[in-house]
Amino acid sequence: MTKWKLAVVQDDFNGGANLRLMESYIIDCMQKHPETKLILFPEAAAAGYIFSEEHVRSKAEPADGPSCRFLSGLAKRFDLYIGYGLIEKKDDKLFNSLNLISPEGELLATYQKMHLTPLEKHLFSAGNRLVTVKTKLGTFGLMICWDMAFPELARLLEKQGTDVILAPSAWESPYEGAYDRMASARAMDNTVYLATCNFTGGDGDVQFFGKSAIYGPDGAVISEKLTGESSIVPAEIDIKKRQELKESFYSMRSDERTDLYTIQWRGERYGS
């Protein structure tokens, strides 16, 4: 399948009853955009994104825990891929994680956020594993929020065959410009699609601004929500167009001089 529809959701997922809120969005999306094949929810959407150790520990669950089981049923009911953020508990550690569920209700992958912000480092352990998932829609590369600030991660995902980067976020004000520019750059750098969705609302000093968007392989916005209103943002993904762009002006991956690169990442020569 070379053309298909993706939708991202933005809302305040700190209000409680998050799984029911996610369910209502899935139902609404499938009524308004029945051709949708994948829905993406923000970072930690299942738990809420609150910088409190008490909150984090109380909401932590295994990757295949209650939120996964609940959303698995919806994935099967609507024949959907569902991506969503959760607080994962594994081996007595807590991770800021992203689950991807198949239309058959199978948990395809769990990605643990690698790059933690200063506000997160006392709450979570950092992940250390790249995650890509091959599906009938194409190959997805998984990252979360602040991961978008690191070009190397996006490049390594592309090297593993990624067509679409899924990057759910909880990106706060006043960094709206950085959110947009980093997402666009990671898409264009690697000639991939990138879908990101953000929280709205906030509490105290931390305020979220929405501005969820889907970017094309040329870094241009395909679809976006410019305000902080709760919203579903749909877009068409065309894998064939990505290949056409790679073979025309956006030929950076075939033109790059990897023989000159000396950057090391995890002991391997970057670009090799």
Overview of this structure, please?
Helix content is 26%, strand content 30%. It is an alpha/beta fold. It has a single domain (3-247), classed as Carbon-nitrogen hydrolase (Nitrilase/N-carbamoyl-D-aminoacid amidohydrolase, 4-Layer Sandwich). The protein has a 6-stranded mixed β-sheet. The protein has a 6-stranded mixed β-sheet with strand order 6-7-8-9-12-13, covered by helices on one side. Helix 4 links the parallel strand 7 (138-142) and strand 8 (164-166). Helix 1 packs parallel to helix 3 and helix 4 packs parallel to helix 5 (176-190). It starts with a strand and ends with a strand.
Number of domains: 1
Return Rg in Å: 18 Å
Helix/strand/pairing category: alpha/beta
Q: If helices are DSSP runs of H or I spanning 4 or more residues, what is the number of helices?
A: 7
Strand order of the largest sheet: 5-4-3-2-1-14
**What is the CATH class?**
Alpha Beta
Low-confidence stretches: none
CATH level 3 topology: Nitrilase/N-carbamoyl-D-aminoacid amidohydrolase
Domain CN hydrolase: 4-239
GO molecular function, one term: hydrolase activity
Family: Belongs to the carbon-nitrogen hydrolase superfamily. NIT1/NIT2 family.
Organism: Siminovitchia fortis
Kindly list the characteristics that best describe this protein.
272 residues, Nitrilase/N-carbamoyl-D-aminoacid amidohydrolase, 6-stranded mixed β-sheet, 26% helix, 30% strand, C-N_Hydrolase, hydrolase, Carbon-nitrogen hydrolase family protein, C-N_Hydrolase_sf, hydrolase activity
